[in-house]
Design a protein that fits this description.
Distance between the termini of chain A: 21 Å
Number of helices of chain A: 13
Helix content of chain A: 25-40%
Radius of gyration of chain A: 19 Å
Strand order of the largest sheet of chain A: 3-2-4-7-1-8-11-10-9
Structural class of chain A: alpha/beta
Order of helices and strands of chain A: EHEHHEHEHHHEEEHEHEHHHHEE
Largest sheet of chain A: 9 strands, mixed
Strand content of chain A: 15-25%
Oligomer: homodimer
Chain lengths: 396, 396
């Protein structure tokens, strides 16, 4: 396998983008990454698009071919990669392996989703199409419903509390206010005599014990990366970021088939594989983007990847250990909770955010000092298909 | 790049499969390929699913994760690859590059589609979602409509006649009657005093100058392959089939943007790349599966890949040169015209059919004698994203 580096990264602001088509968003993010890579006249050999809902939400298929035309990248190869909310991670993976194989040199990976095409229960139903078609979907189970039941079990087994969950909401939504690409622009507050609209006392139940601010918003957005062999990356102006490790694992589609439904085996395994390939340990990571579609997931994942022992993740978050300046900064971008979760974009956006961190190009209020190694976890289904990437700043 | 071989191939009969879900079909084809590979207890490391319409037709996403669960292949990695009618080819490509990279050893590639979920104009409309979302789809252009206009231009420029097109229909539908996996089970006849229901005189206009029997049917079906490094394949019982060459190219999304709409540049380029990688010439190929979603495409592709000069493909077909025993046997399976075209399955099924040919395991009335090298062309959009594979029987 050739070593593969990231030489370009770009993102457009997530949120409501009523004025843009899905194709517009994919094109804008791609152009930012291409520009960031500074390849000049050099084009890319292949394009991988991470997208889940083009057919269902936009009634549009073969969007990768359409994007190549839009960006005038012909005759570059192109296809769409779909893996539910891990579609972005799967696009990065296939770009990585394609360059690692030696077949392609320069690859564009772009993830995007236009989810606000539908709202309310229709958005929830769209996401629920990833559940089991016989054992789950017909019975009306939704992802928030699953997350609620998972949270209850996790609380019972590991003593996670509502305060622990709120610590995630408060941190991520605060960080979102600092991130120009984030969907959520207002910090939560704890309320008081004159409660603000965003006070946590105005936080209605969504899927007990989860409340509104435990859930990520429904967002539009796109993010993009340019990959190439590390050797070629060394000639460029910006420090290349090595994809030092990659791991992926699947688990049973439904939670009830698992011996212990609180045990996210695919997260553990994907992270282990990524660390093994990178020859690093959890303790070597300086900054991580975890898949906090629900606050409980940031806590559970922080334990399953090995940052904290089981049952310690919630306490660590409440103690500020996962904030900027803490022992293990997590979701400094605001995470899915505040940056937003346009499903096909998320896995790519997580990598983009770590690239920004490892290049040390963020403003002081968001930059993890001396960050050399980063981790991303992109969580598909309810933990039935998980991808982890370990990224490393290459010493020049 | 590591050399990658095909060690397992399987297919289920294409056609109307009302009794099966999409997942059933993907699972059945996968099990046939796994069984064919004879890997024993060895499982696969990764799964690539080629599928276009799971979300739109079955309201089901993340089907690759679901398939891994269904087949109990956890923790194997998995994702779906979508590229319109070339989704199957794109799944094979990503399986190929993943094994070539050295990251995975054993990979399952499976393509499938359950298209008969919708019928009539709804099926045509589903396929039309791959057209340009602003410049084509809103104006009601369909794939048969495009093919009709393309045929008219090709007739004018190269002297292709209705007799040439009928030669393709007659050959492919006759071969379909011999293929147990083909959708179309009845041969066409030229009619007479007592016209049969399948007489070509009972062949109504579909999209002028194309008639009903110039179009592939709307089919359900699935096909699967097992890939592994060539070195590992040599230890197995069946002769390994090397993926000796692969090429892919894109072109403008719409026909009207092309300098010469009859020039299928992406077909030429994809085939050239595949031949170059395989170090073979068109004349070295003994059997080919071309993407005859419309009869004109078999003629046009046979010229663009280099089997015949421009304007000679139709005459060659009418002269029987592309029949079994002819100079260049094409679509001995019956092609899309008779095997059927479940869009996500086709690119995989084409490779499966060539594997059967190169292993010399077909009955005499379908086997190309001493076939050593084969070619497949999987045609996405209207030629805007094309994949070609050159397969080679490895001498033992």
């Amino acid at each position: 396998m050739r070593d593969v580096a990231i030489i370009g990264a770009g993102m457009i602001p997530f949120g409501r983008r009523d004025e843009d088509t899905l194709m517009d968003m994919l094109a804008y993010a791609s152009l930012k990454a291409l520009d960031d890579a500074g390849l000049g006249d050099k084009s890319v050999d292949a394009v991988y698009v991470g997208n889940m809902g083009g057919g269902m939400l936009q009634r549009q298929t073969a969007i990768a071919s359409s994007l190549v035309d839009r960006l005038n990248l012909m005759p570059a190869a192109a296809e769409t990669v779909e893996n539910g909310p891990a579609s972005g991670g799967s696009a990065v993976k296939n770009g990585l392996l394609a360059v690692a194989s030696g077949y392609y040199d320069y690859v564009l990976v772009v993830g995007g989703e236009k989810m606000r095409e539908v709202t309310g229960w229709r958005a929830t139903d769209f996401v629920a199409t990833m559940t089991h078609p016989q054992a789950e979907y017909p019975y009306g189970i939704t992802l928030p419903g699953m997350a609620g039941m998972f949270t209850r079990l996790y609380m019972e087994k590991y003593g996670v509390t509502r305060e622990h969950l709120l610590a995630i909401s408060l941190k991520n939504q605060e960080m979102g206010t600092l991130n120009p690409y984030a969907h959520v622009e207002m910090a939560l507050d704890r309320g008081g005599i004159f409660d603000s609209p965003h006070a946590i006392v105005n936080n209605p139940t969504s899927a007990d014990p989860l409340h509104l601010y435990d859930l990520c918003p429904v967002s539009d957005g796109a993010a993009a990366l340019i990959l190439c062999p590390l050797e070629m990356a060394k000639k460029l102006a910006k420090p290349p970021i090595l994809i030092a490790g990659f791991g992926q694992a699947t688990d049973t589609q439904t939670l009830q088939e698992r011996d212990d439904p609180t045990d996210l085996k695919a997260v553990t395994l994907a992270a282990q594989k990524a660390f093994e390939m990178a020859k690093l340990k959890p303790g070597d990571i300086h900054v991580a983007e975890l898949h906090d579609a629900f606050t409980i997931l940031e806590i559970a994942e922080s334990e399953h990847v090995g940052f904290f022992k089981k049952g310690e993740g919630g306490k660590a978050a409440a103690a500020g250990k996962t904030r900027l300046g803490g022992q293990m900064p997590i979701n400094i971008s605001g995470g899915l909770k505040a940056r937003g979760h346009p499903v096909g974009a998320t896995g790519v956006a997580q990598v983009v955010d770590i690239v920004f961190q490892l290049r040390h190009e963020l403003p002081k209020n968001r930059q993890v000092q001396k960050a050399e190694n980063g981790l991303t976890v992109n969580f598909g289904g309810f933990g039935n298909n998980v991808l982890a990437f370990v990224l490393r700043r290459v010493q020049s």
